[in-house]
Amino acid sequence: MNLRQLRYFCETVDAGGGNLAAQKLFVAPTAISTQIGLLEQHLGGELFNRSTRPMKLTALGEFFYPRAKELLAQARRLNDESCGVAAGTWGWLGVGFARSALFSLLPNTIRNFRVAYKDVHLDLIEVLSEYQADQLRQQRIDIGISRFFGDFERAQDMSYKVILEDPFIAAISIQHPLAKKKEISISEFNTIPFILYPKDSGSPFGQKMLNSLKRNGTSPIVAYEAIELHTALALVGAGLGATIVGSSIIENNRQDVVFIPISDLNEVSSIVAVTRKKDQTKILGVFMDQLLSEGQSLPFTK
Fold this sequence. Notes:
The protein is α/β, with parallel strands linked by helices and 302 residues long. It folds into 3 domains: 3-87, Orthogonal Bundle (Arc Repressor Mutant, subunit A); 91-164 and 269-297, Periplasmic binding protein-like II (D-Maltodextrin-Binding Protein, domain 2, 3-Layer(aba) Sandwich); 167-267, 3-Layer(aba) Sandwich (D-Maltodextrin-Binding Protein, domain 2), CATH 3.40.190.10. The protein has 9 helices and 11 strands. The protein has helices at 3-15, 18-25, 29-43, 59-87, 105-116, 132-137, 205-215, 229-237, 282-297; strands spanning 48-49, 56-57, 91-97, 120-126, 143-149, 158-173, 194-196, 222-225, 243-246, 257-261, 268-276. Strands 3, 4, 5, 6, 9, 10 and 11 form a 7-stranded mixed β-sheet that branches. Strands 1-2 form a two-stranded antiparallel sheet. α1 (3-15) packs across α3 (29-43), α1 (3-15) packs across α4 and α5 packs across α9. The chain is rod-shaped and about 100 Å long. The N and C termini lie far apart (63 Å). The mean pLDDT is 89.
């Protein structure tokens, strides 16, 4: 049994006869009857009752026809999807991301990618930067969008591409007196409770932030530790303290928080795309290009 036999059989049923099926398929009528005969020989029974005009399906034919149609449809889907994968227009892409990428970098990247590649399924998974390499090794994601502060460990089996360097900026409640300033000094964090994030034993990001402040002569009092950035900003909006974030998150953010440049803090965080080495598909390459393009267009970034 092969796909040609299935196709000839189904076309004969759909057309209402072998001669009409032959015309539709641009083959000789004898080719239709020969292939159907071979199919019946393989199955061990007749598919058509040939004593009637027009021919009608036998019980075996009634059973076989819908299943043959489904198998042909699956074969067509397999062909189309495989060609799409080869051409880079169809497939699946797992994207792991640090929460801060949701504010500006990721939404526009996804929107632009989906316009051009509507048949590629994007699976979005929130993963702290420090855990993305393991997710890549386990094939759960194909690219990780990470945020690092200062030097960070680079796994030997991973590739790292800096999307943008993101200057730090103060996040302060709109009700706080400092909210009226156009910029503040790093020393202001000595006078306001500090909200640290992320609260995770595997992430050194928060401690690196504190160390940076201390190197610059400031020792803030940590009043709260938030599990992730959204929580930290909610605490800021509630007037419980201030924190420091990457300036790229300003767009489309909270209305109860103001973001103010820090005049004497020159350190930046890096948003980095992490992928498996030697694992560069066309789809992944296009998504990476979209990320780089979006990163270059963001305001307040270096």
